[in-house]
Write a structure and sequence with these properties.
It contains five helices and ten strands, in the order ααββββαββββαββα. It has 202 residues and is of the alpha+beta class. The strands form two sheets. Strands 1, 2, 3, 4, 5, 6, 7 and 8 form an eight-stranded mixed sheet that branches. Strands 9-10 form a two-stranded antiparallel sheet. The chain is globular and about 50 Å long.
């Protein structure tokens, strides 16, 4: 799949028909947080596609082990919305620059995916963008590593599985799409799964 095909598929998203592909729908997750008295906060992440010859790779990060939230896990570059951000796209670009040193001038924003509500009460907007190869400089406090996963790996259903864990006596399922030694799961895998579904829609 090339970048022009990605642009066409993202441009025709039926936002009413798609939502979170984890263990709850978008609305169920929002109601879950509301029932617990939690405020759902906006955030933006960057699904950055790097163009390498005739292939596309997705940029992901591994968080440092000492962080309070999601230590050591795989995520997209991004973070919570700040009042100085003009919009959620600006949030994703700013956070990506702060975390891995991406050059915004070299990034072309393609569009965004349906929002994803996390168990940590963030409503994430995944911003899809493309760029020629860049050199990443990781913020040593937040990011242990930045790496690329081939888009074809994400598109191949054979690489996906449903895993589960027990929480408060209930078994909860989630998507996982391991790549080499990396275990990509949870919200990151959920957003990647939605991205895959959008790209493969006829």
């Amino acid at each position: 799949m090339n970048i022009e095909q990605v642009k066409r598929q993202v441009a025709r998203i039926d936002r009413d028909a798609l939502g979170e592909t984890g263990d709850m729908t978008f609305q169920e997750r929002r109601e879950y947080h509301r029932a617990l008295g939690r405020t759902v906060r906006p955030a933006g992440v960057l699904i950055l596609l790097i163009q390498r010859d005739d292939a596309l790779n997705i940029v992901l990060t591994q968080r440092t082990a000492h962080l309070h939230d999601h230590a050591g896990q795989i995520s997209f570059p991004g973070g919570r919305y700040e009042p100085e951000d003009t919009d959620i796209v600006a949030t994703a670009l700013r956070e990506s620059f702060e975390e891995i040193g991406t050059e915004s001038a070299r990034i072309e924003v393609v569009g965004s995916l349906p929002n994803y509500v996390t168990v940590t009460a963030y409503e994430i907007t995944p911003v899809v963008a493309t760029s020629p190869p860049q050199t990443f400089t990781c913020d040593p406090f937040e990011v242990a590593d930045a790496f690329e996963v081939p888009l074809v790996h994400v598109l191949d259903d054979a690489n996906w599985r449903r895993d589960s864990f027990l929480r408060e006596g209930q078994r909860r399922e989630y998507w996982a799409v391991p790549y080499q030694e990396r275990y990509i799961w949870g919200a990151t895998a959920g957003m990647l799964r939605t991205f895959r579904e959008i790209l493969l829609q006829p």
